Amino acid sequence: MTDISVSLPPDLIRFITARIESGRATSSSDVVRDALQFLESAERAKAVAQTRLQRAWSDGVATVDVGEIDIEALKAEARQRLAVAG
């Protein structure tokens, strides 16, 4: 394994220390390794979600029948709904 050095703000140092003192980690390397593995997993999950969303969007766009919109009729319907809700 390769050693690297990173500078961290005091709040993250306290977080690492607390994890070690509570027994949830045995070293600062364990904490950083776990954090990076979690980040990597989250980024993979985000990429999968984005791909699914893009696919769903594309499928929706491909199947929608927009047709023509009568803006005046749309405005009249909106005014009528507002009047009823009123």
Which secondary structure elements does this structure contain, and how are they paired or packed?
Layout: H1 10-21, H2 28-63, H3 71-85
Description of the structure:
The chain has one domain. Helices cover 73% and strands 0% of the residues. It has helices at residues 10-21, 28-63, 71-85. It holds the Pfam family ParD_antitoxin. This is Type II toxin-antitoxin system ParD family antitoxin. Keywords: Toxin-antitoxin system.
Given as residue ranges, the uncertain stretches (5+ residues, pLDDT < 50) are: none
Q: What structural category characterises the helix and strand content?
A: mainly alpha
Beta-strand percent range: under 5%
Radius of gyration: 27 Å
Number of beta strands:
0
Q: Determine the oligomeric state from the structure.
A: single chain
Give the biggest beta sheet: none
The tally of domains stands at: 1
**Average of pLDDT:** 94
For the record, give the distance between the C-alpha atoms at the N and C termini, rounded to a whole number: 69 Å
Helix content, binned percent: over 70%
The shape, in one word, is elongated
Elements, N to C (H/E)? HHH
Number of helices: 3
Keywords: Toxin-antitoxin system
InterPro entries: ParD (IPR022789), ParD_sf (IPR038296), Ribbon_hlx_hlx (IPR010985)
Family: Belongs to the ParD antitoxin family.
Protein name: Type II toxin-antitoxin system ParD family antitoxin
